[in-house]
């Protein structure tokens, strides 16, 4: 998730794990000539199998063994897919708290990254599908229902304009409901126009801001939109 230098030859890595949630580990000797191969393991978004020394009281721990769990075939070589991966990493860095193990969310992220790497489907709606999918594990999934407007603050559809500005207009609400239709199980089936995708993506980011504390701004959003322009 994140990597920072530590001393002359080591790094500290923030890793999202299935068992312990988000944890920090010291990896020794990777910033040397002999350690260059090991350093490639800890690129952002890599999927790893790790043996670690774990301490219940927290703090930085050490990695005993590490290897690739999945070697990306397309992500390192396709600009759009690589941009999407960095966008997802930035989102995850804002919603995952240290020490919180959420196996279901971990599995969703893990499988989504593999799918993004391997798919040959159209991926323009992949970020909308990913953001909506994660709300299921954040307790904020918009339930499919009637209503002309979607209230971003309360997370519900309503027939009346909410008494605040945090809502989607009728056109955007229709786009959101379309994405939530039960029979639409794959992102390549979301046939939205470029403008509708952009508006809906911004709306979902606003939704996260109001349902995830200290969410802040997404720096990679402009880059992502440029890739799909």
Characteristics of this structure?
alpha+beta, single chain, five-stranded mixed β-sheet, de novo design (two linked rop proteins), about 230 residues, OB fold (Dihydrolipoamide Acetyltransferase, E2P), 7 helices
Structure, described:
Helix 2 (79-95) runs antiparallel to helix 7 (221-227) and helix 4 (126-138) packs parallel to helix 6. It contains seven helices and eight strands; from the N terminus they run E-E-E-H-E-E-H-H-H-E-E-E-H-H-H. Helix content is 38%, strand content 19%. It is of the alpha+beta class and 229 residues long. The protein has helices spanning 36-39, 79-95, 103-118, 126-138, 170-180, 194-211, 221-227; strands at 2-6, 10-17, 21-27, 47-52, 61-70, 149-151, 156-158, 167-168. The strands form two sheets. The chain has a five-stranded mixed β-sheet with strand order 1-2-3-5-4. The protein has a three-stranded antiparallel β-sheet with strand order 7-6-8. The protein folds into two domains: 2-70, Nucleic acid-binding proteins (OB fold (Dihydrolipoamide Acetyltransferase, E2P)); 79-227, de novo design (two linked rop proteins) (Up-down Bundle). The protein is elongated, with a radius of gyration of 19 Å. Strand 4 and strand 5 form a beta hairpin.
């Amino acid at each position: 998730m994140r990597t920072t230098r530590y001393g002359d030859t080591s790094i500290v890595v923030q890793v999202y794990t299935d068992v312990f949630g988000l944890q920090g580990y010291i990896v020794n000797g990777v910033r040397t000539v002999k350690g260059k191969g090991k350093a490639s393991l800890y690129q952002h978004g890599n999927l790893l199998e790790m043996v670690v020394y774990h301490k219940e009281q927290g703090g930085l721990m050490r990695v005993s063994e590490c290897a690739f769990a999945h070697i990306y075939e397309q992500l390192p070589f396709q600009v759009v897919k690589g941009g999407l991966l960095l966008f997802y990493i930035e989102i995850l860095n804002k919603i995952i708290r240290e020490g919180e193990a959420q196996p279901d969310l971990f599995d969703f992220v893990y499988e989504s990254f593999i799918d993004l790497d391997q798919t040959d489907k159209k991926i323009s709606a992949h970020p909308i599908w990913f953001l909506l999918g994660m709300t299921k594990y954040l307790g904020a999934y918009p339930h499919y229902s009637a209503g002309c407007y979607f209230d971003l603050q309360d997370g519900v559809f309503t027939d009346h304009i909410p008494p605040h500005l945090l809502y989607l207009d009728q056109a955007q609400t229709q786009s959101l409901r379309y994405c939530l239709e039960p029979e639409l199980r794959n992102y390549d089936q979301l046939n939205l126009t470029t403008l509708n995708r952009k508006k809906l993506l911004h709306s979902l980011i606003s939704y996260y801001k109001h349902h995830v504390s200290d969410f802040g701004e997404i720096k990679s959003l402009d880059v992502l939109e440029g890739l799909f322009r």
